[in-house]
Amino acid sequence: MEMAIGIRTSLGPSPRLPASANTYRNPREAPTSVCFFKEILGRRVSFPSLNSRGCSNPSARPRRTATRCSTTSTAKEAASVSKKKSMTRRDVRNIAIVAHVDHGKTTLVDAMLKQAKVFRDNQTVQERIMDSNDLERERGITILSKNTSISYKGTKINIIDTPGHSDFGGEVERVLNMVEGVLLVVDSVEGPMPQTRFVLKKALEFGHAVVVVVNKIDRPSARPDFVINSTFELFIELNATDEQCDFQVIYASGIKGKAGLSPDNLADDLGPLFEAILRCIPEPSINKDGPTQMLVSNTEYDEHKGKIAIGRLHAGVLQKGTEVKVCTSDDTCRFAKISELFVYENFGRVPVEQVQAGDICAVCGINDIMIGETIADKSSGKALPTIRVEEPTVRMSFSINTSPFVGREGKYVTSRNLRDRLYRELERNLAMKVEDGETSDTFIVSGRGTLHITILIENMRREGYEFMVGPPKVIKKYIDDKLLEPFEIATVELPEEYMGPVVELLGRRRGQMFDMQGVGSEGTSLIKYKIPTRGLLGMRNAILTVSRGTAVLNTVFDGYQPWAGDISTRDQGSLVAFEDGSTTSYALFSAQERGQLFISPGMGVYKGQIVGIHQRPGDLSLNVCKKKAATNIRSNKEQTVVLDSPLNYSLDDCIEYIQEDELVEVTPLSIRMCKNPKLYKKSIPDQSDNTINMIISVSHQIIKCL
């Protein structure tokens, strides 16, 4: 009898499962599994196996044909207690779809909505329906968590689409309070990626049931056996229980709207996925007769309804027009009245008179509600444990615009406008922090990463704000008199021909490689590094340059470790405008020999503005507004001026480019870079000061001679 054995010890990760363990197609051929634990020398030993459905099943039997899905010990205890106190709602399932970026979460949700007949047959539906934000559609990523629901065989399935980028992990952490299970979407070629580890870790900590969806199974280089084995290893590394390791596997193609229990035999629709949700996701346990309790996990704002609180009702009943008590974690409460109630049906919100426990709803009428507060019964309500997210790792300074072009394009330019907008962001963005800076017009904004703060900058810019932003800096800590800094796991997927330059680049940024493997049959490799967050600042553009735009970089926070030493992130200086004015072709023709320019003829510039990249280390001031001298000498032929195309840097590129003594000027219509006047004047001595010092020294010499 064959048996797949996985051993996890305190000395290292578990060995990889053999691929043959995933090839059982007949339930009668599936091996009998034995699970037991021995606490000897701190070692945990387990013997999992894989059943005919492609998922590990510690309690499988040779003649068993039904599929047993993962349920956690926490869920079992809650279920046993609920039998005495309450009941379960069989007509509701609450799930969150989590995955690494670009693994197909939003596309899979699109297919689920279409097959659930959410839209009319003649209705025109755009791709990535859940990405309704303009920034999300432009960048092709999910930034905010969104709610929707579908009906399948009389059961309402509440679905939460979550971001996949590590910088928006706070969105994932807070919505996991509203669900009992997750769909973990994994790419059929890439397998588990850094963000897959992060979201799975959070789901396991909450004790949620997990259904693994191997997406994009129709790719030519798909390798489902490797992906399942790698995912099982990830469960073991994250100390999942045996019940959690008993996950159901569904193979799907989100773009085609197909799913199945086998990679070679997909159904014509997503029926197997819907059946797995009903079978494997636990029913919400409710206390119908208990006092009302609802933890606010998200908020939205409507011009007519005001602030809208979103969360799952844990106990009791919410009714429209009733008075409730809003409780916080520090036992401070206030009273409020519910003006309107909504539940999610299909792709929108539907007004209702009351909401039963176990459902996800939206509450209007409490304009000062905050994420993490509890809407409770007026007389006997108590606060639920508040939502806690991981601490930010990167900070940037925001200040008012001090350039000569201030007020030309922006609507909100004062420090009061900037302060109100930044502190208003904290109401829904729990992973971000805002502090007052050294001066009254400077504020320090901390976030999960550069992209996390850049999205805030872009939103403020589109709202009409005008301000300046400093370079990103990591948040350091001192523990036991030791300086620590954040480290991240960087995963780079690239063609093998560019492996050398990328490895050299990561090595200069203090990165340490710990894994390298091939990906599919497309001639690409996957390398993993542990690297300081400082080394990743400005890394994305550098990797794209050395790999000719073919590399894909993904990062996720790993933890705080000892200071890695000095890191040089930029070898070239900047070209700085010498005076105010309008650029001319004559001046730019001479300036382009010094490096690459950001500007074109006819643009307005000011003294101290960065107009290009110097080809050598150190900054260089030059005149880009000089005009050709007019003379009375006629020329038979005018000199032809040929200018190179200027570099078009986006907001993200500018944030990555600037260094300690530089700033980014952000306006609704323009993005400029300039030298920080406070630091730039110190680095370059004034000519008048040099003259005075020279006169004083000469005077001293004359006095000595006399």
SSE topology:
Blueprint: E1 6-8, E2 44-46, H1 73-85, E3 87-88, E4 92-99, H2 105-115, H3 134-139, E5 146-152, E6 155-161, H4 169-175, E7 181-187, H5 194-206, E8 209-215, H6 224-237, H7 242-245, E9 248-253, E10 258-260, H8 271-280, E11 285-286, E12 293-302, E13 306-315, E14 317-319, E15 323-327, E16 333-337, E17 340-345, E18 348-352, E19 354-356, E20 360-364, E21 374-376, E22 394-400, H9 415-425, E23 433-436, E24 442-447, H10 450-462, E25 467-469, E26 473-474, E27 477-479, E28 482-495, H11 499-508, E29 512-519, E30 524-532, H12 533-536, H13 539-546, E31 552-562, E32 574-577, E33 581-582, H14 585-591, E34 595-597, E35 604-605, E36 610-614, E37 620-622, H15 651-657, E38 662-666, E39 671-675, H16 677-683, H17 687-705
Parallel strand pairs: 4-6, 4-7, 7-8, 8-9, 32-37
Antiparallel strand pairs: 1-2, 3-11, 5-6, 9-10, 12-13, 12-21, 13-20, 14-19, 15-16, 15-21, 17-18, 17-20, 22-24, 22-25, 22-26, 23-24, 25-38, 27-28, 28-30, 28-31, 29-30, 32-36, 33-35, 34-36, 38-39
Helix pairs in contact: 10-15
Structural overview:
- By secondary structure, the protein is α+β, with helices and mostly antiparallel strands.
- The chain contains 17 helices and 39 strands.
- The strands form 9 sheets. The protein has an 8-stranded antiparallel β-sheet, with no helix packed on it.
- Helix 5 links the parallel strand 7 (about 180-185) and strand 8.
- The N and C termini lie far apart (about 110 Å).
- Mean pLDDT is about 80; it is low at about 1-70, about 70-85 and about 680-690.
- This is Tr-type G domain-containing protein.
- One of its GO terms (biological process) is gene expression.
